[in-house]
Amino acid sequence: MNVADNSDVFVDEIPVLTPDGEIQRWTVRARQSDDDDCHMRLAGGFGEHWDAKGADVFDAFAAVRREPEARGFRFLVVGARPDCWPSGMSSSMSGGVLVYRHYRSALQRLVHDLIDVVSRRGTRRYIFDVAPVSRVATAEEQAAFREQWSMRIL
Predict the structure, then answer these.
(1) Complete DSSP assignment for 59-83
(2) Do residues 104 and 41 lie in contact, with contact meaning Cβ atoms separated by under 8 Å?
(3) Mean confidence (pLDDT) of the chain
(4) 131 CB neighbour count, 10 Å cutoff
(5) How confident is the model at residue 2 (pLDDT cuts 50, 70, 90)?
(6) 98: which of 31, 44, 70, 124 fits an S-S bond (Cβ 3.0–4.6 Å)?
């Protein structure tokens, strides 16, 4: 993440898989507005750009990627994984740039917690860290997973 001159603006480059199978680097730019919304601009490899806003960086990213995803683009970042989103506290403390991985079962969570402790990497991830194509989903699929996860029975 590159912070611009103003602390409420950041710019990052993220990998995007095109419908032809090519990986491009797109630019994402976000800023916090006076009304406390996060405004995001996504600039694609073909000179196109999309704008959206959300309560935080995560919400704005989910909104801004919907149109490109409908055209077959896939965002190869942690913030596009169906099982990653910020907690309420993380959203308010980090502005939605740090997300947690949410597991389907308590056993799966326990195993990954042990791995995180041993590796000392922690459980939170930067939203624009690279993720493999096999692990990402559309914003719509991510919202459906989150809804299903919130209704799970442990």
Answers:
(1) HHHHHHTHHHHHTT-EE-BGGGSTT
(2) no
(3) 80
(4) 19
(5) very low
(6) 124
Query: What is the C-alpha separation between 77 and 40, in angstroms, rounded?
Result: 16
pTM above 0.85? no
66, 72 contact by CB (below 8 A): no
Contact 88, 47 (CB under 8 A): no
Amino acid occupying residue 62: A
Range of the domain at 41: 2-150
Tell me the average pLDDT across 4-27: 84
Q: What is the pLDDT of residues 71-126, one digit of tens each?
A: 999 999 999 998 887 877 766 667 778 887 765 554 454 444 545 544 445 567 88
Q: CA-to-CA distance for 104 and 125, rounded, in angstroms?
A: 18
Q: Check the CA dihedral 98-103-107-108 and report its sign.
A: negative
Alpha carbon of residue 147 to chain centroid:
16
Domains identified in the chain, total number? 1
What is the arrangement of strands in the sheet containing 124-126, beginning at the earlier edge strand? 84-85, 98-101, 124-126
The residues with which 28 forms a beta bridge, in sequence order, are 12, 42
DSSP-assigned beta bridge partners for residue 42: 28, 50
User: Cβ of 119: how many Cβ atoms within 10 Å?
Assistant: 8
